[in-house]
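If I may wish for something, please sit down with the protein I am sending here and say whether tokens and residues agree:
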Amino acid sequence: MHDHAIRKRRLKAPFILCASLLVLCIGTAQADDIDDLVKAHMREHRIPGLSLAVVSKGAIVREGGFGTISSTAQTAVTPATLFQSASISKAVAALGALRLVEAGKLQLDTNVNRTLRTWQVPDNEFTRDSKVTLRGILSNSSGLGVPSFPGYAAGAPVPTLQQVLDGKAPANTAAVRVEYVPRSEWRYSGGGHAVLQQLMSDAGGQPFERLMHDLVLAPLEMKHSTFEQTLPLAAAGHVDGQPLPNGRHTYPELAAAGLWTTAPDLARFAIGLQHAFAGRPDALISQQMAKEMMSRQIRSEGLGLFVMGTDNRAPSLWYAGRNRGFDAFLWFAPGSGDGIVIMINANDNDETLKNIARSIAARYQMTGFPFP
């Protein structure tokens, strides 16, 4: 009996080894398929560098860098290479703002002028009966104008935040003012997020970049991420295949467009929100606040995230960003724990990032990916 059991175990061992090798080979083949797909898209669309992260069941299962940081350099992109996240900065800033709400330093539905100290939103005929609120800013229904910011090229003077808010030289955009009745409609507003930047700094008593480090980046172990605009080495932005002078535009509008980060770090951001949605005790915000953030406020927008579908029990969330020379894409589903982040150092108008993400979602059998 004992000898029979030993022989049986010996017979099983080769089959177990073969099965393990088969699983490994399948995983490698999947990874190679994704590599080939990414490289083909990069060649076709003249994308010098790409950063990628894949989340499955609440964990990063793949991260990688492709290409080079510039079309004129041989330095390879790695998972630690910094890219501009552009408007995805708004989603990250929103999490910081909601942490201040839960700390009692901000309120979602109170006139922001009650907290703003350094600068005030000028009242006008649109604010007579309805005021600018944090909820309105985070859902792009604040009434505030200025949809986006072009940034400042290398060598150009860079304005202070207050100069941006008032449209004063050397700012290259109009003054941020209320242009319609707050909460009456949805209009995308980078200007509103410039107000958010001042609001958070006033409420938190620190410069915005330091405040966001303490509230979000450090707790989520986004170790390569920063809202600082002076960097020693990062990917260079490209337009029509040509690198930008000095590699980048500067964005003093930090909450709207200023986050430098990596695909794996943005994946950690998504995982942090997945933890909050699940009600984990170590999450940065409460489950109630996470579900508020991920629920439609107006049209398809939550608080700092775009919401796909109508089932708040299993939302599908995304954000995309574009700065001069950089595009970025973030999608995650907190219920399943899936997510995809792709960042490139180019502007692409052919939905390349969504096409790559769609293929990754199919490879990893992700449910709920919202872009068929």
